[in-house]
Every structure is written in structure tokens, then in C-alpha cells.
TrEMBL record:
Highest taxon listed in the record's lineage: Eukaryota
Pfam families: UDPGT
Family in the record: Belongs to the UDP-glycosyltransferase family.
Gene Ontology MF annotations: quercetin 3-O-glucosyltransferase activity; quercetin 7-O-glucosyltransferase activity
Native species: Spirodela intermedia
Name of this chain's protein: Glycosyltransferase
Record has Glycosyltransferase as a keyword: yes
Length: 453
């Protein structure tokens, strides 16, 4: 079957960090002439502020049963949620696939993210192939893969020693603190989500093809670390205006779960700032920092006398308003990072934020919270030369003096800061080259589309 006749069913876990790269992949598949159905949980589907979709892209939800309504996040039993997500989600996704076939649009391939591994079983039941879309780094994929294939003992033996080094085949030395937290069971969230990863990696075909939101120049060694699994880098997943340039009007992902501030409010403010003078502060769609940490950040921003744009996501306790800065609930992050005025990104270092910052040529100050974030800031600092980690004090949180050190390092005139800015800018060029027509990520995605179904 040729690529003009493909129909991809893209299934995402209902979180902003999964929606953005999946929706962008769906749009790229459509640009290659394919039909795509994007599926997300019903409650999230109804919250998404969707743009006008191209003709070959449709959005249809799956159900999470009793969790389909508007339920406060802090009241959810997440272990129960994941069980219902699997049982009801797989059943209703299968119903969707049957409905699409009955309408003359049969699915030819299912693409899914790592927290909905049950989508692969739905694909098998329909006799169609599936592919995991890995939306974290290739390095982190390699850590997980090695852990679940004979190397768990190396990590478990030192799990209580955060500064101890662990050597995994084909990877640089990691300290235990840089290992993804889901493998260390430090929090309830780690314990809750670990079984999903366990299922994913233990049921994955030994020669699986995995799409990865990264690009060859950034992670070539890590992409080769898990043979015979074939990792296909197809990233970075960015709106077209900031990536391949094929659609200058597509400046944002278009599937926000949060109400963004009016675009003109922050872009006009940014326009009035000097080049590379603004500190952009955002901790993504999920992380909730302690009030004391927010107060330390507020203090250092005030004392630095640098202009700043802070995404507070509705949390204002500890976030100080100031004449030198602007605080918004939400914004189009890639538009902000692409603005000439932004010189530094203070971030939790989720993979989307890390990759977007590199792709936009902006160096990072990292305050990792959980999951893959410590690994990401380690790579940004040591492998890619485009960031620095804010080290915690004895109390467990980076204090104002440490944050000031990091800001001065990244935005100052010293040799290391200059080197970081050069590195970030170089990675930005390489990222755009990868997704442009004929680039490595573009070639990989086109080759995947043409695979026999």
C-alpha cells in the first residue's frame, strides 16, 4: 500500500507533554499525503483548544470511563485511573477503529506514546502494525531498555546513593541522581507509573521500530545503544514555522489544555526588550514547585535586574510581580523561545522543553523535578554544552545564590557563557536542518511511511 493510502491512528496519553509532539507528528504525516486520526481521552479532547485542522486530520476521543468528566486532578486515584485507562481505553479505541473501517477509512498503522502501551494490543487484534512514538530522549530510552533487559541490578544496588556513578553499556556514566526517577521509586508517582513502563519494555518486540522525538546529530550514539531495537529519530516535533518552514502560519502546537494569555500581550512586551536580555521561566504543564522554591526564584530575578517572562500556570503564591518582569498563566512556548529577546530558559527540563530550547538556540538553567528531567539537564550540560544545573542546597532546593550563579553564567560575558550560547545556537541550526525536506528526520519519517503494512 503506498503512502497516499495510509491511515495512521495516533493515540496519546491525556497530558500536554504527550499531546504536543503527537499532534505535531500527525500534522507532518498529513503533509506527506496520509490520513491521520488523532485520539486522546474524552475529557482532555473536550478541553483542547483545537485550531482548524487540515482535511486529512480528524480528532476522535477514546473513553476513560468514570474519569471522562471534569474531575479535580488532586482527587484522582492514579493507580485506579491507569487501570481504567487500559481497560476502557482499549475497548473504546477498538470501537473507534471499527467505526473508521465501517466508514471506509480503515486504519493501517497505530502510533502510540509510552503511557498507553495497550494501544499496541488493539492494533494486533485488528491485524495492523503499530509503532511506539518515544517522546523522551533516546538516551533515556536506552537507560530504560537496559534496565528491563538484564541491567536492573546495576541501578538497584546504588539506588540510595545519589552521587554514585553507574555504568551502563553504550552510555556515558550516569550518577544515580540522573537516572530516571521511575526506576528509583522515590515518590508515589514513580511507584504508580513504573508498572506501565515495565509492561511497555517487557512486551516490546526485540526488533521493534520506535519513532523518537530527537534528531541524529544530537543523539547518534544513544540511538545506536539498544540494537536490535531500531530507533528512528524524526524530531524535533515543532510547529512548522519554527522547524521546516513549510507553513509559516503554524506558529504553535494548537492543542492547549490551558488558557493562554493573549499572544499580543507577551509578544509586544518581548518586542520592547533588548536582544538576549530576557529570562524565560516555565516549569511545564505538570510540575508544581514548592512555594519556597518559587520565592527563591522571585528573589533572584528581582535582584538580577534582568527582564523576565514567567509562566505561572495559575499558581501565584511565591511568584512576585515586578515592573521588570511579566507573569502569565500560559503562553506559546516555542514562540517565546524563538523570540530574539530571550537569552535563557529556566526550566524543569522535561524533554519537550529541553528539545524546544535547543532547537530555538536558547541555553538552559535546569531545575529538574522527576522522571527523565535530571538526565536531560545532565545531557544539556555535559554532552551538548548548552545548559547548567542549579544545584540544590542541603535543604534539597536550589537557593537564590545558586540560581544567581547559574543566570550569571549563562547570560554573562564570561567564556563559558559565550560557549553555551554558541553551542545552543549551533544545535538550533542542526535541529532545523534535520526536519527540513531532505534532512535526516524528514528522510526517516518518509521511510517509515513507506514501510509495508
Amino acid at each position: 500500500m503506498d503512502e497516499q493510502q495510509q491511515h495512521f491512528l495516533v493515540v496519546a496519553y491525556p497530558a500536554q507533554g504527550h499531546i504536543n509532539p503527537c499532534l505535531q507528528l500527525a500534522k507532518r504525516l498529513v503533509r506527506l499525503g496520509n490520513r491521520v486520526t488523532f485520539s486522546i481521552a474524552a475529557e482532555t479532547h473536550h478541553r483542547m483548544a483545537m485550531e482548524t485542522l487540515p482535511p486529512l486530520l480528524a480528532c476522535h476521543p477514546y473513553s476513560v470511563g468514570k474519569y471522562d468528566g471534569d474531575i479535580a486532578q488532586d482527587t484522582i486515584d492514579w493507580c485506579d485511573y491507569l487501570q481504567v485507562l487500559k481497560s476502557v481505553g482499549s475497548r473504546t479505541l477498538a470501537e473507534l477503529a471499527r467505526d473508521l473501517a465501517a466508514a471506509g477509512r480503515p486504519v493501517t498503522c497505530v502510533i502510540y506514546t509510552f503511557l498507553v502501551p495497550w494501544a499496541a494490543a488493539v492494533a494486533r487484534d485488528f491485524g495492523v502494525p503499530s509503532a511506539l512514538y518515544w517522546i523522551q530522549s533516546a538516551a533515556v530510552f536506552a537507560v530504560y531498555h537496559l534496565y528491563f533487559h538484564g541491567h536492573a541490578g546495576l541501578i538497584q544496588a546504588k539506588s540510595q546513593e545519589p552521587l554514585s556513578s553507574v555504568d551502563l553499556p553504550g552510555l556515558p556514566a550516569f550518577r544515580i541522581r540522573d537516572v530516571p526517577s521511575l526506576l528509583l521509586s522515590r515518590t508515589l508517582l514513580d511507584i504508580t507509573y513504573f508498572p506501565v513502563l515495565d509492561e511497555l519494555f517487557r512486551t516490546m518486540d526485540a526488533k521493534a521500530r520506535v519513532l523518537v522525538n530527537t534528531f541524529e546529530a544530537l543523539e547518534l550514539d544513544y540511538l545506536r545503544a539498544v540494537k536490535p531495537v531500531e530507533l528512528l529519530p524524526i524530531g524535533p516535533a515543532l510547529p512548522s514555522a519554527h522547524a521546516d518552514g513549510l507553513d509559516g502560519a503554524e506558529t504553535s502546537f494548537g492543542g492547549d489544555l490551558f488558557q493562554p494569555a493573549p499572544r499580543e500581550s507577551y509578544t509586544t512586551w518581548l518586542d520592547a526588550q533588548r536582544d538576549r536580555s530576557v529570562v524565560y521561566v516555565s516549569f511545564g504543564s505538570y510540575a508544581v514547585l514548592p512555594v519556597r522554591q518559587l520565592e527563591e526564584i522571585s528573589r533572584v530575578l528581582e535582584d538580577s535586574r534582568r527582564p523576565y517572562l514567567w509562566v505561572a500556570r495559575g499558581v501565584r503564591e511565591g511568584v512576585k510581580d515586578s515592573s521588570q518582569g511579566m507573569v502569565v498563566d500560559w503562553c506559546s512556548q516555542v514562540e517565546v523561545l524563538s523570540h530574539r529577546a530571550v537569552g535563557c530558559f529556566v526550566t524543569h527540563c522535561g524533554w519537550n522543553s529541553t528539545l524546544e530550547s535547543l532547537a530555538c538556540g536558547v541555553p538552559i538553567v535546569g531545575l529538574p523535578q522527576w522522571s527523565d528531567q535530571s538526565a536531560n539537564v545532565l545531557l544539556a550540560e555535559t554532552a551538548w554544552g548548552a545548559g547548567v544545573r542549579a544545584e540544590p542546597s542541603a535543604g534539597g532546593l536550589p537557593e537564590a545564590a545558586e540560581l544567581r550563579r547559574c543566570l550569571d553564567l549563562v547570560m554573562g560575558e564570561g567564556e563559558r557563557g559565550e560557549a553555551m550560547r554558541r553551542s545552543a545556537k549551533a544545535w538550533g541550526r542542526k535541529a532545523r536542518e534535520a526536519v527540513k525536506e531532505g534532512g535526516s528526520s524528514d528522510r526517516n519519517l518518509r521511510a517509515f511511511v513507506k514501510l509495508p503494512r
